[in-house]
Amino acid sequence: MTRLSLDALLVLDAIDRRGSFAAAAEALFRVPSAITYSVQKLEQDLGVMLFDRSGHKAKLTSAGQLLLQEGRALLDSAAMLEQRVKTHATGWEGELRIAISELLPFARVIQLVREFNELGAQTELRLTRENFGGMWDALIDGRADLTIGAPDMPVQGNLYCREMGHAAFGFCVAPSHPLAQAAEPIPAHELRKHRIIVLADSSRTLTPRSASIQEGQARLTVSSLDDKINMQCAGLGIGFLPLQHVQKPLADGRLLLKAVEDARDPVPLYYAWQTKEPGQAMAWFLQRLRDFDWQLL
């Protein structure tokens, strides 16, 4: 059993912040002797000196400074836990974990979170980015309570989901790439000769998915959509890119849009969840997502 208590850490913190035992006693509404006793008992329980009392004013020893530094983190965590418990009791979740698709423009994610913040709710949001099947995997595996922008339909799991729009894709190459001068539409056998930049599926338990990759085609795999775009802008490979994310490089000439024989159809996107009776934070997101404008092309 630990010999530390939150109250002892609170006393130590008050002494350091107020500058003396007497001032700490006043701040904590206690008598000075109670503060002195708390410190002496803590030193006895730990078997270390926390204060150097050789001078006119007691000062923290190095052990005391370490305990105070780490102890403040514990006090902060305890305060956060207390707030989350109180929040949960009101029907608002203490934490809501949301997996966000790389296909969604992050500026719109910021707007969605801003609107939630305006509610003044104390629910802590934890946002993660996932790719392809990783969106469904995060939900099924319990890493997320809500996924936004999951492509296609789930392959398993007891999930609730609603369509939220479609992501349009275009085949893009850099002006320096050999296919920039190719006649259109470019046939599949010509594409196979060139390295494709692949955005890795972030699934951990589901079978990873991939799209538009031909058998035997050389590939370069990256972990983020930004990396994929940058690789293709550098002429290091080819591939389909979500048009919403490449308007600027297309406009300034860093990328060219090329027609191919096997064009990629727009991909339906979904938001999904598992909880049959969601808390108030989840309920707000589910209601807001019904008509939220993601500004997808």
UniProtKB/TrEMBL annotation:
<dbReference type="InterPro" id="IPR036390">
    <property type="entry name" value="WH_DNA-bd_sf"/>
</dbReference>
<feature type="domain" description="HTH lysR-type">
    <location>
        <begin position="4"/>
        <end position="61"/>
    </location>
</feature>
<dbReference type="InterPro" id="IPR036388">
    <property type="entry name" value="WH-like_DNA-bd_sf"/>
</dbReference>
<keyword id="KW-0805">Transcription regulation</keyword>
<dbReference type="InterPro" id="IPR005119">
    <property type="entry name" value="LysR_subst-bd"/>
</dbReference>
<keyword id="KW-0238">DNA-binding</keyword>
<dbReference type="Pfam" id="PF00126">
    <property type="entry name" value="HTH_1"/>
</dbReference>
<protein>
    <submittedName>
        <fullName>LysR family transcriptional regulator</fullName>
    </submittedName>
</protein>
<dbReference type="GO" id="GO:0003700">
    <property type="term" value="F:DNA-binding transcription factor activity"/>
</dbReference>
<dbReference type="GO" id="GO:0000976">
    <property type="term" value="F:transcription cis-regulatory region binding"/>
</dbReference>
<comment type="similarity">
    <text>Belongs to the LysR transcriptional regulatory family.</text>
</comment>
<dbReference type="InterPro" id="IPR000847">
    <property type="entry name" value="LysR_HTH_N"/>
</dbReference>
<dbReference type="Pfam" id="PF03466">
    <property type="entry name" value="LysR_substrate"/>
</dbReference>
<keyword id="KW-0804">Transcription</keyword>
